[in-house]
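seq:
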Amino acid sequence: MTASPATLLGKDNRDKPAVAWKQRLATAVADSFLLRKGKKIHLENLNDPYLGNNLWLKFLANLYLILADYGTGSFPPKRLLREESYARERAQIQSVKIKDTVPLIDEIMSKPWWDKRLFPQHSRELIRMIESIESSGVRVPARILELGCGMGWMSEILALRGYDVTGTSISEFEIEHAKLRIDSLKAKKLNRSLQFIATPMEEVHRHVCNASYDAAFCYEALHHVYDWREAFESADKCLRPGGWLFLFGEPSALHTYICWRTSKIWRTEEIGFRGKELRRQLEKMGYRNIRIQRPVWGEGTRALLKRCLPFTIAAGSLVSRSYWIRAQRPG
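struct:
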C-alpha cells in the first residue's frame, strides 16, 4: 500500500526533531576536547589529504570533519545536479590545490610505476585484471572498452598486449594526455590499436560503435560517476551479445565515510557501493555468470584477518575492501 502525502508529511515532521538532535550532538562532539586534535589537524592542513601518511592523524581529521559536516547537514553527501557533477570531474585535476599541476600530471602519466608505496598494489591488480579478462575467454585481439580510463595507463598496457582498445574519460584534459600514449607507440614503431574518446560514462554508447566490443571494464572509476546505473546501461549497448562487463576495485559503502575529507580536498565524488545493489542491477539487465569477489592480498593469518574485516590498511590509509565483479551480457 502506498502512503498518502499527508502520512509522508507527518513522518517527515516526526523525523525532523530526531535529526536536529543528532546534528546538535554531532556538532557538540566535533567541537569538544575529544576531537580538538582532529579539528586542529584538519584546519591547519586544509589542502593536504596525506598528512604524512599517518593513519591516526588521517582518522582524527576525517572523523572531526564527518561530525562537523553532519552537524551542518552537509554529510552524508548530497546528490549534485548532473552538470555540476560533470563540471567538477572535468576540471578536477586543474582545480586541486594539493600540488603543482605539472608534477601531478607526471605522476599520473607514470602510473603504475611512480609511487613505490602503491606499486605492489597496482602491479598485483594489473595482473589480476588481465587474468580475469582472459580467463573469461576474451583473448587477443579482442575489442575492449575502458570506462573512466583517466590518462590511459591501463588502456595502453592492454593495447601493448595486443588488444584493440578504446579508452574513455569525461575529462577532455585527461584524454589530451592519454592520446600522447598513441604518439609514443608510433614513435616506437609499434603497430597497436589504441584510441581515446572524451565522454561521460553514461553517454559512451553515443560515441562508439554499438554492440561491437567483446568486453568493457572499469577500474576504480565507477564510484565517481553521476549515475552508475546509466553507466551500466550505456556499457551494455556497447557490448556484443555474450560480451563481458568487468568492475575492478570498486569500493564498498564504507568508502563514503573513509574518504569524506579526501573527497572534499580533491573535489571528487567518493560514493561506495553495496554488492547486493550491483548484483541486482546486473540481474535486472539479464546478465548471467555473475561473479562477485572481495579479494585480499597476503597469506596465512594476515589474509584470514583481512577477510574478517570490511577494510584494510594500505600505504598509510584505511581502505574499504573493494568489489571485483564480472558478468556476461545475454547472448
